[in-house]
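Ticket #4471: structure output looks truncated?

Reporter: J.K.
Steps to reproduce: submitted the chain below (283 residues) through the standard prediction queue, then opened the result file.
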Amino acid sequence: MGILRWRKVSFRESFQLALMLSQGGEFAFVILTKATGLRLFTMELADQVTLIVGLSMALTSPLVVLQRKIWHCRSETVPDQDAYWDDHEPEVIIAGFGRFGQIVGRMLQARHVPFTAMDKNSDHVEFVEKFGNRLFYGDLTRLDLMKSAGIKSARILVLAVDDVEESLHIVDLAREQNPNIHIVARAIDRFHAYELHKRKVENVIRETFASSLEAATETLEHLGYTEGQALAITSMFRKHDEEMLLKFVGHMDDMKELQQLAQQGRLELEKLFEQDSKNPVSS
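Returned output as attached by the reporter:
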């Protein structure tokens, strides 16, 4: 809490975050079991720590709710920050509020950044109004809906829908209405990523790419590579793959050229790995 106050975060936010971080986690039980097995802890001490962690997990949520109620009672006469959101268009639009869009929304909400949520399914977005944000549901490719959501004044569009054609249509609409909008887009697969790059989307997030690289890193570490070596290998692969992706964008209609680029890419990657094996990366 002291660090947050030093960083000029409000007392209310600092206290609430400190309260939420005070609880232990399930991983503590894993560590305790391992430590007890290695005889680093006595069973008596392990039982005491287990009790403390369990109580912290059980009590944190009720304490956070109680803190919010107390703070609400004390600040009834103080203008709420949410009132600002009612009179100003949110700068961020999240189009698609399923599992992908909800994570983005939760992180923005945690920093009190107002946003507009859009989704086909009203069940996905109805609750966001409780936190002072705006919502729209329906066909996201409808121009009138996009205008109502504030696409002309928004700074950032987080494109999180899981349908490729719908995603590309929304990009085209957004660019027509607001050429300067910054788009952060979810890509379902490589073809989708190509099409988004062709439309000059600034940030293309491939849905399974980062998690696959994380899995590869873990696999290499379990095979005996150091953490530094595993991270260096996956970093090399990420950079190479992203470079190849951008090369392919301009040749999507030329199958012969794509095949040549793919072959060239495989040879380049093999050469990089061969060079790396001759000059191992230390941890």
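Triage note (M.O.): checked the attachment and the full token line is present. The longest strand covers residues 182-187.
Status: closed, working as intended.
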